[in-house]
Amino acid sequence: MIYQIRRRGPRIDVHAVKLCLLPCLPNVVHQVTQVMALFYIGPGVYTIFTRASVIFTALLALAFFPEERVVVRQWQFQLGTLLGLIGAFGVIWFQPNATSHDQHVALPGLFIAFTATFCWALYGVLIKRPSAELGSIRSFGVVSFITSALLFPLTLTFGKIGTPFHAGAQANLLLIVSAVTCITLAHVLYYVAIREIGVALSQSLQLLCPAIAMGLSAWLYGERLTHAQLWSVAFCLSVPSLRCEPSPSAPQKQLKIFNSF
C-alpha cells in the first residue's frame, strides 16, 4: 500500500477512511466468529457451511446494486443458490456434537457459524464501493488497518496479547504465511473479482472452495463426513454447474463474464 500511495492514484485521506469504516464493522464480527465456530465444528464443515453466504450476498446485492439484478433474477442462479443453501445447512446439521453424544451440532455453534457467514456476505457487499473508488490494494490496506485497530481493544479485553511470544517459532511462522497468502493475497484478488464480475458471481464461484478445504482438513486433522453430510455437499457443489444467461442488453464485458462463468 505504501508503494501504491507513492504512485498516482486515489489519496488515502479522511474520506478513504470513512469509506472503508462501514465494511470493517461486519469484517471484525466475521473475523471473531469464524474462529469461535471452529470450537464447535471442523474447518472443512465450516468452509462448506459458509457457502450459505451466497444467498445472503445475492439478496444484499439485489437490494444495493441494481446492475447485478440481471444475474440474481436468472432461474439458474436462484435454483443453484437454493441447492447451495440446502447443502450448507445439511452439512452442519448432521455434524455430530463434539462435546456430547448428540447427533447434531450445538445450537450456539450453529448461531456463531450463521453470524460469521452473514457478516462475510455483508462485508462482501459493502466493500464493493471502496474497492471501486480506491483500488484493490489501497482499499485492502485501509480495511486491514481499521480492522486491526478495532480488534486490538478486543484482544486486550478478552485475549492475551503476549501469546505470540510464548507460542513458539513454528506457530508464528504459520500465522505469517497464513496472513500473506490466505488474508492479503486472497482479499486483494477477491476485491479484483468483485470489481470485475460483481459481488454475486464472486461469492458463487467460492462454492468451489469446500472441495479443497475438505481435502486439507482430512489430511491435517482427520476430519471425515457422514453419508448425510456427503449428500449435502453434493447439493452445495452443484451450484457452479448451473449456467446463467445474460440479458440481450447486457454490456459486452458482462457477456464475456457470463460466458466464462
Straight-line N-to-C gap: 31 Å
Task: Give the SSE string.
Answer: HHHHHHHHHHHHHHH
Tell me, briefly, the overall form.
Answer: globular
**DSSP E strands, number:** 0
Question: How many structurally independent domains?
Answer: 1
Count of runs of 4 or more consecutive helical residues: 15
Strand content: under 5%
Helix-strand blueprint:
Blueprint (H helix, E strand, L loop, with lengths): L1 H5 L7 H24 L5 H7 L3 H12 L4 H4 L2 H19 L13 H20 L1 H7 L1 H23 L4 H5 L1 H29 L1 H7 L3 H13 L5 H11 L14 H9 L1
Helix pairs in contact: 2-7, 2-9, 3-6, 3-13, 4-6, 4-7, 4-12, 6-14, 8-9, 11-12
Textual characterization of the structure:
- The protein has 261 residues and is mostly helical.
- It has one domain.
- The protein is built from 15 helices and no strands.
- It has helices spanning 2-6, 14-37, 43-49, 53-64, 69-72, 75-93, 107-126, 128-134, 136-158, 163-167, 169-197, 199-205, 209-221, 227-237, 252-260.
- The model is unreliable at 240-261 (pLDDT under 50).
Overview in brief:
The chain has 261 residues and is an all-alpha fold.
Features:
single chain; mainly alpha; 15 helices; disordered C terminus
